[in-house]
Amino acid sequence: MEGKKKGHILKRFGLRIPLVLWSLAVLYPIFWMMLGSFKTNAEIYANPWGMPESFGFQNFIDAWNNYNIDLGVFNSLLVTVLGSLLALMLAVPTSYALERMEFKGSTMLFNLYISAMMIPMVLGWIPLFFLLMNFGMLDNLFGLSVVYAVSQLPFSIFVLTTFMGSIPKELEESAAMDGMSPYRILWKIITPLSMSGIITVTIMNAIQFWNEYFMALIFLQSRENYTLGLAIDFISREASYTNAWGTLFASLTIAIIPIIILYAIFQRRISKGMTEGAIKG
Amino acid sequence: MVTTKKQKYLFLAFCLVPTFLLFAVFTLYPMISGLYFSFFSWSGAAANREFVGIDNYIRLFNDGIIPRTILHDYFLVVTKVLGIMVLAMYFAVAIMQLKLKEAPFYRIIFFFPNIMSVVVIGILWTFIYNPNLGLVNSALEAVGLENLTRPWLGSETWALPSLVLPSIWAGIGLFMLMLMGGIATISKSYYEAAELDGATEWQQFWKVTVPLLWPQIKVSILYIVITTLNGSFIIVQIMTGGGPNNSTHVMGSYLYQQAFEQYNFGYGATIGVMILVISLVTVLVLARLLKREKVQY
């Protein structure tokens, strides 16, 4: 009996080893990147994976002032906020109509939106490039925001319809009896009651837009319009000549901090939202 | 509802039309006209767009790089599915079976890379693979394996396999959570019954956990395949740009190069059609292969 127990403890310990190792594999590169942002270039070469000698913010100041990271942060914030707001304005009324109103083709329309989640968007990017050009929306942050919002419509509609489906119908019915117009019902009853879903969708969309790289690469051209991802990519490509590794690490750290903060606050919501989105896909 | 029919339709139009219009303009139209563009030779200026019939498709079949890009995509699909599923399954089962006190810690940490920007992941890992400063070579030197160090992303042989690890690193948490969600719904009584019958834990895993978890396993595999075929080019573009010597080009990065760097927009659209066809066919075939009778005990 004693031996079995001992074996059990050993086994519990042994089975944990891969978990601990993977935690290190996730955390160490991220800490390494953050530590690197405090190192001078000489330190990075001499001591690439140790602690920095001192914690100065020179790299951050450099990145902000001399490498366009200030513009990148501003532009990324702009497309993130605009894209998320527009996605909500488009998705909330449609989700309500699809979930609660009866009309011909409602299932078909829903399926059309949802199936767009599975289609590789890359084919559409070539015509979209020319479409934006003809609309004068190429190399334009507002144009990019619209493209972002529409690209997240299927996901947003999928999550919002699920949330709205759980709201009891009686509330709308009695409000309608009292003579409330459907517009007011949508605004005063449905929107507040599906707030949890709206928050989830908004956080997921915001993370997506803040992180997005490829559409920005295709649809933006001038450096003053670069989003954070493009600005960092630019520094990274130049780093092989300029050796501005410290600055690069600092800008990566700047890009990741808002995500860490959001994750710290909304960790459950984010992982739940993403898992559910994937299960549908 | 006391509203009249007309009011109802007005409200429906208010809800549906603006959204659908934007969706049609920015999603449906580009997809359909992508198909249409694939029959043209076009370098971008409106004047020199020329209908060439199926010439682009003939070119596609004779382009020596195309089979390599497909092969690279499938290499990433297979290695990612295996790597992610084996590790995520191990982590999920270990965390759930052992009822670890620190389970929330693992959930939170393992999932985090899923919401990191591909730019950050790509650049971070490019640096990890850096021949002189990177973690990989430094670690190999530290344990006395200098002869294994190499310029990982600069090597035609090693660049593509080197892209697998960051993709697994970035993806695993989501699938671990999906599997954990499934395991949580399996009733304890199955394991108790299996134990009474003398089944070892390994047998319990194969006979109880895997069959009952099959829906989650299936969705996870399909999701990895879809996201890889539709999106693997982003990390390729950031980490290697398709090089060295095309050894890491996948279908999407080759499309980007053809269309947006060499201005062969018609041919780029043809590659896009190929991506669409290949990913749809792969997913349909795979969904059939993964179909199992629903298990009931």
UniProtKB/TrEMBL annotation, chain A:
Biological processes, Gene Ontology terms:
transmembrane transport
Topology versus the membrane, per the UniProt entry?
Answer: Multi-pass membrane protein
TM spans, by residue? 13-35, 73-98, 110-135, 141-164, 185-207, 244-266
Instruction: Tell me where in this chain the ABC transmembrane type-1 domain is found.
Output: 73-266
Q: Where in the cell is it found?
A: Cell membrane
Q: Which is a Gene Ontology cellular component entry for this protein?
A: plasma membrane
> What are the entry keywords?
Cell membrane, Membrane, Transmembrane, Transmembrane helix, Transport
**Which top-rank group of organisms is this from?**
Bacteria
Q: Does the keyword Transmembrane helix apply?
A: yes
Tell me which InterPro entries the record gives. MetI-like, MetI-like_sf
Family label: Belongs to the binding-protein-dependent transport system permease family.
**UniProt name for this protein:** Carbohydrate ABC transporter permease
Record lineage: Bacteria, Bacillati, Bacillota, Bacilli, Bacillales
From TrEMBL, chain B:
Q: Which InterPro entries match?
A: ABC_transporter_permease, MetI-like, MetI-like_sf
Signal peptide range in chain numbering = none
Any stretches that span the bilayer, and where are they? 9-32, 74-96, 108-128, 158-179, 221-243, 263-287
Identify its membrane topology class. Multi-pass membrane protein
Instruction: State if Acyltransferase is listed as a keyword.
Output: no
Give any Gene Ontology cellular component: plasma membrane
What does the UniProt entry say about where the protein is found?
Cell membrane
**Pfam families this protein is in?**
BPD_transp_1
ABC transmembrane type-1 domain sequence ranges:
70-286
Q: From its record, what is one biological process in GO terms?
A: transmembrane transport
Which of UniProt's keywords are assigned here?
Cell membrane, Membrane, Transmembrane, Transmembrane helix, Transport
Family per UniProt?
Belongs to the binding-protein-dependent transport system permease family.
Q: What is this protein called?
A: Sugar ABC transporter permease
State the organism of origin: Alkalicoccus luteus
The top of its lineage is: Bacteria, Bacillati, Bacillota, Bacilli, Bacillales
